[in-house]
């Protein structure tokens, strides 16, 4: 697949969990993330980013609370084959 034809926000959970990204962490701006990932949010509109970290990948510091990914809070949800992280600014 060429870079021109690849759009991360076209991925859905089935694609993400079967996508051979190896140990890659996928990150979207909240509004560009797959809708079913957005629906995991338990916040009321202060979301900034969503990331998918495959099982077995250590979550790097830049995805933890207090970082630019989630300066206020980072919510974590276990899903098939990995973890969804949602970063909030307040």
Essential attributes:
globular; mainly beta; four-stranded antiparallel β-sheet; 90 residues
Poorly predicted sequence stretches spanning 5 or more consecutive residues: 1-15
- Give the amount of beta strand, in percent: 25-35%
Overall form: globular
Compressed to H and E, one letter per element, the order equals HEHEEE
Relative helix content: 10-25%
Rounded average pLDDT: 80
Helix/strand structural class: mainly beta
> What is the radius of gyration?
13 Å
End-to-end separation in angstroms reads 38 Å
What is the total domain count? 1
The total count of helices amounts to 2
Outline the biggest β-sheet: 4 strands, antiparallel
Counted beta strands: 4
Outline the structure in words.
- The protein is mostly beta strands.
- It has one domain.
- Helix content is 11%, strand content 29%.
- A four-stranded antiparallel sheet has the order 1-2-4-3, with no helix packed on it.
- β3 and β4 form a beta hairpin.
- The chain starts with 12 loop residues before the first helix and ends with a strand.
């Amino acid at each position: 697949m060429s870079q021109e034809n690849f759009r991360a926000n076209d991925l859905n959970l089935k694609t993400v969990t079967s996508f051979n990204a190896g140990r890659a962490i996928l990150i979207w701006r909240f509004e560009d993330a797959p809708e079913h990932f957005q629906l995991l949010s338990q916040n009321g509109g202060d979301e900034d980013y969503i990331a998918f970290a495959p099982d077995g990948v250590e979550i790097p510091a830049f995805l933890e609370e207090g970082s630019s990914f989630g300066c206020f809070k980072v919510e974590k949800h276990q899903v098939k084959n990995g973890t969804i992280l949602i970063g909030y600014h307040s």
